[in-house]
Amino acid sequence: QQQVKQSPQSLIVQKGGIPIINCAYENTAFDYFPWYQQFPGKGPALLIAIRPDVSEKKEGRFTISFNKSAKQFSLHIMDSQPGDSATYFCAASRNTGKLIFGQGTTLQVKP
Amino acid sequence: NAGVMQNPRHLVRRRGQEARLRCSPMKGHSHVYWYRQLPEEGLKFMVYLQKENIIDESGMPKERFSAEFPKEGPSILRIQQVVRGDSAAYFCASSPAGQNYEQYFGPGTRLTVT
Known about the structure:
heterodimer; A: five-stranded antiparallel β-sheet; B: mainly beta; seven-stranded mixed β-sheet
């Protein structure tokens, strides 16, 4: 019940494309869903986060869509650029300080 | 405004030695979290600390691992008698008091056990 399942494991898109990364959870007590971006050799950086009382949140080119009934949420990257090539992690938390991470998606944006 | 600082960035230890990993949280942050990332895997929660208190250590292995966050100085993750399976990247994150949702990560310490 503590798992967060992320897919796909890897993704390749052309510059300007819209990669979509999906996550699913079981525990309905989760109430905070962040996305992190990680470049090789670096720590994860907080990108954007959503709470279950909204269905969508946008920050720049990054959008989270949230489906509470399906217990799923996804990250969309608009107008993707080669500089977006990184590993993306979804996570979930329920105000305990413990983030439960998905397995990660390696994104490659081709020029 | 300096971010979360971790040192050393790389640490090599032989089997049986001790590893000490240090983490200084962002200025104004009083909560610290430690996560471990094994190769090709996601991050796994280990422990959540506030100054002089362990709040949640449910992710810590029962033996050889310990963590502290003293009143003064950095948080320390200590691994005694390291084994090859301890080789991983260890990340520290911090958050302000009362906001344990928004965690900001440091650059990590990459531990290699030979």
